[in-house]
Write a structure and sequence with these properties.
It is a single chain. The chain is α/β, with parallel strands linked by helices and 171 residues long. Helix content is 23%, strand content 30%. The longest helix has 18 residues.
């Protein structure tokens, strides 16, 4: 025989409250430290940035923000219709402190190397080769560890000068 006392509802209430509190706590899979959170993000793969280039010599994405060391995948699509020989587009990301104008000036004489001057190739962090109409290319890389602004642009003759450029901001 079960005898109910005043203590029985109190004990039952405590068990219910404990169960509710346990259900509201953080899951055991939550990263315990920022390093663990970064490792979990790395395991998920690179973050994809889709950029379109067109016949008006513009990128549709002119600013990318990233954390130091973040893995990024840039996918460039030339949505234009002009032939590659007259309106090809590439994507070049330079190291900090590099002179983009000097790079594109030297690129004018580098048609055979995809408008990438061999003497300045060491200034590139990542790049996508020149694309013709309706072509896509991609590159995967890690953002620099040093916070700052890193220029990207198209090195096809005159494209940089009319504004086919952007910036990767690492912070």
């Amino acid at each position: 025989m079960v005898v109910l006392t005043m203590k029985t509802p109190l004990i039952a209430s405590l068990f219910i409250a404990a169960g509710l509190l346990a259900g509201c706590s953080k899951p055991a899979t939550a990263p315990a430290t920022p390093a663990a959170a970064a490792a979990a993000a790395a395991a998920a793969g690179p973050r994809t940035i889709n950029i379109q280039a067109n016949d008006t010599m513009k990128y549709d994405v002119t600013r990318i923000e990233a954390a130091p060391g973040e893995e990024l995948k840039v996918v460039l699509t030339n949505v234009g219709t002009q032939p590659k020989a007259v309106m090809g587009h590439n994507w070049i990301l330079l190291k900090g402190g590099s002179d983009a104008l000097a790079f594109v000036t030297a690129a004018i004489n580098s048609k055979d190397t995809g408008y990438i001057p061999p003497a300045l190739k060491d200034e590139i962090i990542a790049h996508i080769e020149q694309l013709g109409p309706k072509e896509s290319g991609e590159v995967t890389f890690k953002a620099p560890m040093e916070p700052g602004e890193y220029q990207y642009f198209c090195s096809f003759p005159a494209h940089y000068q009319v504004g086919m450029k952007g910036v990767l901001v690492v912070k």
